């Protein structure tokens, strides 16, 4: 029987991403704090439609805004590791990355009473050490890679990539990859960011993004007997009024098309069960 899973995921960064970029003046801080308002709107929408989702929450958010983090837990949503300081792993040494990873998990354990099963890196930029560290620390799934769109796969370690030479693929691990895409992330579509070096224009029409996001699901439904699609949102981005209307329209449309909404840990378990049945 055809079955098409939808994972709504929320990177609850609040101010951590701006701090990691060195943008700590009052305006970017207030911009991040909008995520506290957006989170309440999202939780109300998810409750209205009886949807369980996954929230990737940096340790900085948990420790800076504990009441907001607890509201997500109390609503029954999965909490996954999104680093402590929201610094991309590729910018850290192995020792720094491991310390940040462990510190983030410890914050989640204090919040939820259990270790996180999933991980998503800040800025989706893994280091050469990330997969090894996730396996070492008992994570079950990862969601920062883009090697597929609707079908989970096993993350590899120790690829050899050198300029001018063929790529040598490393061995697969037990870590399940639940792939993502910038096209299914609200941030590049909607956020205007200006720095001395770059401009991210953002500010696209929500209607256009809604059509793209809907069509990606419809393609999966048409061409795949089973699949998972992951949408990535940030409460300070998607939480704006017209975008909340867009998000609810997306939910309503996908429900009418037969989608099954679930947390990422549940999608992972279903993938593993299918894998076992296939032998």
TrEMBL record:
SUPFAM superfamilies reported in the protein's UniProt record: Glycoside hydrolase/deacetylase (SSF88713)
Pfam family, one: Polysacc_deac_1
InterPro entries recorded: Glyco_hydro/deAcase_b/a-brl, NODB_dom, PgdA-like
A GO term for molecular function: hydrolase activity, acting on carbon-nitrogen (but not peptide) bonds
Domain NodB homology: 26-262
PROSITE patterns recorded: NODB
Superkingdom per UniProt: Bacteria
GO-annotated biological processes: carbohydrate metabolic process
Family designation: Belongs to the polysaccharide deacetylase family.
Function of the protein: Is involved in generating a small heat-stable compound (Nod), an acylated oligomer of N-acetylglucosamine, that stimulates mitosis in various plant protoplasts.
Protein name per the record: Chitooligosaccharide deacetylase
Organism, scientific name: Aquabacter spiritensis
